[in-house]
Structures are given as structure tokens and as C-alpha cells.
Queue: 2 jobs
Job 1
Amino acid sequence: MTSPDERRTLIAGAGPAGLACAWELGKLGREAVVYEQDEVVGGISRTVSHDGYRFDIGGHRFFTKVPLVWEMWGEILGEEFLERPRLSRIYYQGKFFDYPLKPLNALTNLGPVEAVRIGCSWLWARAFPEREERNFEQWVINRFGRRLYEIFFKTYTEKVWGTPCTEISSDWAAQRIKNLDLLAALKNALLSSGSKNGEVISTLIDRFHYPRHGPGMMWERCRDRLAEGGIATLTGTRVERLHHEEGRIVAATVRDGAGERRVPADHFVSSMPLPALVRSLDPAPPPEILEAARRLRFRDFLTVVLIVDKPDLFPDNWIYIHSPDVRLGRIQNFKNWSPEMVPDPSTSSLGLEYFVNEGDDLWSAADDELAELGAREVEQLGLLAGGTVLDSAIVRMPKAYPVYDEGHREALPRIRDYLLGFPNLYCVGRNGQHRYNNQDHSMVTGVYAARNIDGGAHDLWSVNVEQEYHEEVHTGEAEGAAAAGGDRLTPRPAVAPSLEKRLLAAFARYDPVALGGAVGAVAALGLFLATAVLVLRPEEPKGPTLSLLGNYLFGYEVSWAGSAVGFLEAGLAGFGFGYLLARLLNAMISNAETTLRRELEMARILE
Amino acid sequence: MNNERTPGLEELQERALARAVARLRSGVMATVFGLTCGTGLWIATVWLLVRGGERVGQHLSLLRFYFPGYSVSWGGAFLGFVYGAVAGAVIGYVLARVYNRLADRRAS
């Protein structure tokens, strides 16, 4: 067998993407070596230990819709995989809101006045959506209304990303926020088992899988199994430079405790942060590529771990802290992820998560100060339940989240196109593609890279480009994906325009909100004018017949005040009428379409 | 080994159909609403005249406040047809324009 450095397929990074790539290469019977600059494997999916207490950096649920990922997890960990109940809530203004948001719970907590404000704001957003969904704020408001956005999205998102929501790209929202608008969420809350065309919608993932000793257990086990198969993972080894000639990567210079050495390469798989990869290229890329790499930003992450002398603090796995009066962003209760994360059952360990920028005041603060801040804030939120903090630990994780800002939107395609010029360079993983993948998508990029090395032709950059992310499982869709081996990860071709035009003409549906708005506007204006004409006339009493509408429109009369009341109420009634009319029309169109389909089906059979 | 799946034409057709939103043609809506309202008012007026009675069209004649010169009479029936047609056409036209504008905004 060759020595590790002679394997010719080099993998930078022993996170989920790099190790999944190595795993797949092993299954394909190919040799490889993995270089990891840290002393532990797993990347951000590692498990950190402190006096027997185990911590997860960020909380990693093992959930996927990609069958090959699920199979790999099973192969690696087998029975060490626990199935755990999920409870996560949002803490805001002293109250707990279910997460994912459940409308009835949210509205109960917020009260009737706020509920009306939210409803009006949502109606407004539905009727007059932002034309352009360029930033996060526009994306969320179009789906949830401004009021809900301000309560549930703005403060937390700005806490996490450290930038105003107007400067965060809408891509991130589409990828990370559940694809539920308020109406869909209400339907889901009111109809406990929604079913449409045989498709059962299970929007809330209330259980998940988790390794007994935290996520790092998966990757430590993976490393060990790889080593048994001859694929070494060299920790404490950093890729310093990547040498290329005539459009191909030919070698890497790596550094470990013994110094630097040059390793020849036929293939190079990189889960290094994209800016670091670009900077490591030798010869250096053109200045515009280096400049683009400088524009990619990351958000860093800091966990203050508190060990508390109470066995049960709260039932959640994690809690999002939306309250703007603390800097704390999220709290993990590690014991609720797996009981074996805590060695002493009479204690609990909390992970207080702060979203920071490397070098800022929190990042640079002394560990003691951070522990004190954490204890103070968790006490202020009332989540310590009278317990005492026994011990603490601080974990700093640089480059935890790629930032989707305006700079990223322009810079990333430029860098990607440049790197695609190297046919034997494969960018994988969250930081390797500067894409906010969860670990399953990161793993898929690694697996596809391995298959490409083996002669496949997968487009790694198309993994997880689907706009909406996947926490809602539409069972029918999942089955389809399973049958196709994870089809949702593939790009879609465009539809022929002539076909679309014909379909539009044939069976287009009416937009209920638009028809409601139009009928409402006409009704409101009509009643206003009808009332105003009578008010301006000299006869007394004014409009006794039209005033009879007061029997149906509360507070209406033929007066200037009544015309305003009539305007509002006729507008609402008109909206309802138009909305229902469109729904009815659509049902009839749908019926006609179904009938036609059946006739066509029958005609085919008869033929 | 290739696990990728590209949707077929039929699937794409389904998606396009699901996205398709009808538009209203304002000219057609104005014509239809105009004819319907004009004819409706004509019939309503004539019906009352044919039925007869002591106080013919006591309530319908209140439309004179909005349609100057209108009355429940044979002459008023024809004038009402014109007024109804014009008012209906305006309503149909405005309805279509507002609907299309809202639908366009939502689609974009």
C-alpha cells in the first residue's frame, strides 16, 4: 500500500463533506488522504468535551431527505443513533412561542389586538407584495406580513448575522426559512392532518436522530472506519498552497508539526473556506478573483457552556432568544439532545450561543468575562430555574456561517466560474462552496465529488440550489425523491414558452386575492360615491332607502362618516365576495381540467 | 450510479399550469358588464311597467338620484338601458384593470 501522501487524491478538511467524500472513494475502491488542520474531526459538526461533559457546536439534528445520506449515517453509526423528541421554542417578551411557528400558539401568546394587527399586515402584504425580493426583509414580509416579520424574524436574524435584514440576500431566506406562508401555516394548524391528492403534509419535524455522544461521534467513527480501510485522516495538517499547471491542480504544500512538504495530486477536494482556497492557489489567480474572494464574509460563533446543578431546567432541545435586551442568540440544553452528553444526571449543561465576528468585543473577551455574561443573561431570562452555575467553558468557532450579502451575490459566481476551470478541483461543503448547507447537503457534495473522480459528471454547485429548504416533508415528494435517489438536488430545465402560453390560455386560474382586491375596490368606491351623491343632495331625510344597508353594514348611514364606514365595510365584503368567486371559478376550472384529463386517458386506452 | 433525475415534459407542464394565473380583458369585461347592467335595468323597469299598480316602481325610481332623467316609464326604460350600460361598462373596466394590476404585482 502507498503511504498517505502518495494517494494522489487529496481532501482538505475532515468535516462532513470531506469525510463523506473519503467514505465514497473508499466504497469505490480508490485511495485518498484527508488533511485536517484541527486536531479533531467533524468540522463544525464536532463534539467538544470538558470534564466529561459533551457539547455540540450549534446543535446538529440528523435529518435528511436524501436517501444516500441516510444510508451512510446508518452504515457508519448503526445502533449508536438515538431517535430523540424535538422541542424548540422562541423566547420573546417573557413568553415561549412554538418553533416552527404555530399560528394558534403564536396568536394566543400575542393577544387579540396584536393578532388583528398581524392579520391586517399580512392581508396588506398579500395584496401589495414587494415587487422585488432582493433582500431578506422583502422576502419575509411578502410571506408573513410586516408585523410578524418585526416580531419573529427581524431581531433574531439581525442578532445572528450582525447586519440589517435589508442587507441580507433573499437567497438565504428562501433556503433556510420553512416554506410556509401564514395562510399555509394557519391551514396546517387548523387541519391537523391535511391531505391533498394523497399527499400528506407533515410540516413539523417533531423527532430527529442524534448520535449518542453528539455529532462528533459520527465523524470520529467515520475516521476510524476509513483508517481501517486504508484512508488516513491526518489531523494537525494544514494545506498551505495549491499548485497548478496548465489548468490542472498538480500538487499541494501541506504543513504539520514536522514542517512543510509538497504532495503531488491528481485530484484535490477542497472543503476549505473559498477565500482561503483562492488565496492558496499558486500561481495566484487574477486580481479580480482575489478581490472577489475578499468580498466573501463569514459569521463566527461562540458558545458559553454553563454546567448547572439542576437535573431539569427546561424541556426544550434549544430555545431561540428573540429578546433584544440580551446579546444571547440561542440556548442549547445538551442533556435533551442526548442524556449521555452529561456525565452526572443531577446536573445539566447549557450552551449559550453568541453570534459574533472574529475579533469583536465578545470574541476577544476573556473566558471569565464571557462566563459571567452568560450566567447573568440566562438568569435575566429566568431560565436557570434557581440553579447554580458549577462550572463553565468557552468554545470559539470561526467561520461558522457563510454570509449571504450583496457582495456574495456578485462575487461567488465569479469565483465559482474561475475554479470550474480546474477540472480536477472539487469544492465541497458549507465553507467550500460558501453556501449555507446543512450537513446532509455538504455530504452530498462530497459524495458527488468522489463519483466525479471515479468518472461521473455531477454538477457539485447545483446541490442544494433549490430555493426552498426542506423542513416540510411532503410525503409524496419524499417518496418520489427516494425513488429517484434524491432528485431534488438536480437543476431544472426551462419550460418551452409556447407551451406555457397555451397552458395559460387553457386552464389558468384566477388569483383570489387579486379578484378580491378588485371587487373590494369597486364595491368600496361604488358605495362611497352612492352615499356622497345623496349627502350632497338637498332632500331630507337623506337616503332613507340606501340607509337600510345599515342592517348589513355595521354603523353605516347616509352621511359623510357613514360613507367612510361604508367604504371600509363594502371593501371588505367585496374582497370576501371576489375571493370566494375566484375560488369557485378555480374549482370549476379544475373540474373541467380533470374531466378533460379523464377523457384523454379514456381515449388513449381505447386507442 | 447517477442518482439525478430530470423532470419530464409532463411534470414541467403540470408546474407551469399550477403557476398560470388568468388575466381579465378589460374591453371584454366592460362590454359584458355594460350589456348585462343595461339590459338588467331595462328589464327591471319594463317588468314594473307591465305589472302596473298604484305606485309603479316606487323604489327603483330612486335611481334618478344617480341617473338624471331616469324614471319608471317606457322612456325611462330606454334611458336606464343607456345609463346601466355606461355604469356597468365602467365597473367592468375598472374591475379588470384593478384585478390585472394586483395579479401582475403579485406574480412579479
Job 2
Amino acid sequence: MYKILFSLFLSSPLLATELPESRQKELKNLLKHDCGSCHGLTLKGGLGPSLLAADLQNKSNEFLVDTIQNGRKGTAMPPWKPFLNKDETRWLVQLLKNQS
Amino acid sequence: MRFTYLFICLLYSQISLAELRGTGDLGLIIEREPAAVQIISTSTQTSLSHITGLGDLSHASVVYSRDARYAFIFGRDGGLSKIDLLKNKIDKRIIQAGNSIGGAISQDGKLIAVSNYQPGGVKVFSSETLELIADIPATYAPNKRSKVVGLVDAPGQKFIFSLFDANEIWILDLQEPQKPKIQKFSNIGKQPYDALLSPDGRYYIAGLFADNGLALLDLWSPEKGVKRILPDYGKQDEKLPVYKMPHLEGWAAAGNLMFIPAIGQHEVLVIEQSTWQLIKRIPVLGQPVFVMARPDGRQVWVNCAFPDNGNLQVIDVKDLSVKKHLQPGKAVLHMEFTPRGEHVWVSARDDNRVLIYDTQSFKEIKRLPAKKPSGIFFSSRAHKMGL
């Protein structure tokens, strides 16, 4: 029962930032090392563009979530949908936009 | 008495120079996250020292001086660090660009070339002093500079590289370092992402991310231009997403066969070198990243991109099929063979370890702890072209 309540709580889009801590850790590792293989470990860009907060400010959250979920045609950006649900993607976008 | 003896030993160790040793069995393991390297010995299979303060080492690569004493590390942050393997320290370090991807050492060992993304181009330095000798911006249109990939050294004091954004291959001739000569080849195919040089220094081959086939330049006949090989490969197949770009720097040639990672397909391509025809597509467990031949050419080892990056597969060149499947750990990033291939060292990034395998029995021999290990580079690279 608690499990069901907990997963309902997780799936609520308003509370997208409330990911379990273990998953947050996994996502941070993914961001650093797997996104980092094209965007650089410090995310300042590589074959892919910079993901530093300052460079993302003029891009909408919807655009960024869509790019991560579905990739970008005509570029090397692949779709991450098989590995990240929408809440996790929103959480990553928030993390990127708020990094210092 | 004992005290005096100890004192003499201590005194002796202070005044004597470092123990005499060669460097032919040494190497470096890149530790990505602490931005450090370990100096290791392939003879004792141990870590000898640890050097920190090397900047951003994601996608770091290494070349060696021809005396194999110094390692040059190319960091993502544009850092170029010269490491003294005998003194276990950074000899020199400069930041030469904002964002770089790799480098090479010239035929005579005197020049180090670095390929940069930002600002796009190649910079050439003295291997002795790391002073700038030549700056070659990859300008392909007014105010437009391309990211440079696939930089290799070639015979005749040349460096060859590809322009990702401009679909070009350039030959940089530095026989007179103060007067660099450049030969350009355009429309070689869309988005060259990496390249390799055949071990004899004759063929330069660039992989194309957004086009079919590969771009081939015969350096014995550059006047014939760049030719497309395997132009029909993968035309009909749906491209699978690529979560990490394959690397082409390790030429996996065995006899007259060449083994290349397909892009957007979970296959290794076997190409016959005399005719440049595809003779086999070998299915593997994911997008291949490194496809590396054991030095004797009998086996080809393959790792894969995310999410299949826990796998390592071994192709037996005798019958061109996968003979062994290993699972060394989470996120297998790189493999490096000992100079004559009896062992292979494998980095498992997310398990924080490097594993050593016997390539004959496939038995694990040893594990070494390492923090987020990525590339492994042995000093035997000092005497190989195109690495």
C-alpha cells in the first residue's frame, strides 16, 4: 500500500524533483560520464554543445525535455527516452539550469 | 650499531639518484573524476605512483616521447601536460585551448600536435619545451572554424586531420616547422567524427557520422584525392541511436583484413584491404566503441557504448566470429594490450577498477583499484605511427 502511495507521489509532475536519492545519484553519474562523453565532463561542451546553466537560460524547459527524450534529428544527439522517464528528464533539466 | 647502519642507508638513499630503470614496461591509467593518472608497470602489474592536478580528463588521450620517458596528456579542457615517468611528476603543463580532443607526436619526436574543438584548429608545440611552433586555425568559411577530429602523425613530418563541421581532410606538412604547408581535401563526406592511420602509414580513413561509408585517403597517391569506401553500407538499415561515438584510432588490421566499428549498427565490419570490399558484418552486443586487434592480429577485442557497456567480446580472426564474451564490470571504457599481447588491461569506470586478463585463457589475473578509470596507454605506443 505504501509502495503504491509512494509511486503515485513520484509520478506526480508537480513533485518531479522528489526522486529517490539512489536514483538521483545514478542520474548525476549518467549526466557527468555518459552525457559528458559528448558534452564534456564539466559540461562545457565537446562534440555536443555546452550544457552550462548560462548557455541554457534562453532555452525553454519543454525544448530541453523534448531534446533529451527524443534526440535532435540531423545532429548526434540520441533519444534518451528508453532510459529516462519524463520526471527524471525534468529533474535533469532543473539540475542543469540551476547548476552554478 | 644497528642505528648507525640505518643512518648510513638513509644518507645513501638521499644522495643516490633514482634507481636505474627503463620505461618500456610502463604506462598510464587515466582517472577521470579526480583528474589524475596512475603510472603503472606491466611487468609487476602494480601502480607505481599517482599524479594529480591535470584538469578535465574526460576523453583524455596520451602519446609518448620517442625515448618513452615522457607522456603527453591531452585533456578536454585544452590542457597539455608532459609527465616524467621516471621522476613521477609533471614536467610541464600548459592550457593551449578552451576545448580539445586529442593529439599526436611527429615522426622525429620533436613536435606535438593537438586537435582542438574550441577554438577549432590544430596547434603544434615543441615536445621539449611545449612552446608554440605553429597555429593552424581550421577556418573553412569567413569567421567559421571547424572542430578538428582524427588527428594522426604520418611519415614525412606530416599530421593529418579531419574537420567535423566542414567535411574536409587536411594534410599538414611540417618539414619546415616555421613554414607549414597545408593540402586540403573537401567534400569528403558528412561529419567525419574520427579517423585512423594504417600501421604502415599509407592509408588515412575517416569515419562519417552523417554519411554512408568511410573516407579513404591513400598517402602514397594524395593527388588521386579522397575516395569513398563501402558507399552502400547501411543504406537500407535503420540507424540505431549512438550513445557514445566510436573511436577509430586503434587500427585493427590482421593480415589484409581491417576491423571497423559500424556506426548506428551493432556490428563490426570486416573489410578486405586490397579491394576495400566489405567481406563480413559480425554482430556484437551493442554499438562498438573500440575495436582493437591483439598485437599478433589473431584476436579482435570489442567494447560497446551505453547501455551495453558492461560487455567485452572477442572475435577470433581465424573464422571471423565472436569466441568469447566477458563482463568485466560496469562501463567498460577502454582496453590496452601489453606490447606483445599476452595480457590486456581493461578499465571498468563505474566499478572503479582496472582488470588484467590473460588473452589466451581469458582468465582474470588481477584487479587494480582506480577512480573512474577511462583510457589506458602503455609506453609501447612510443614507436607506433598514427596512435
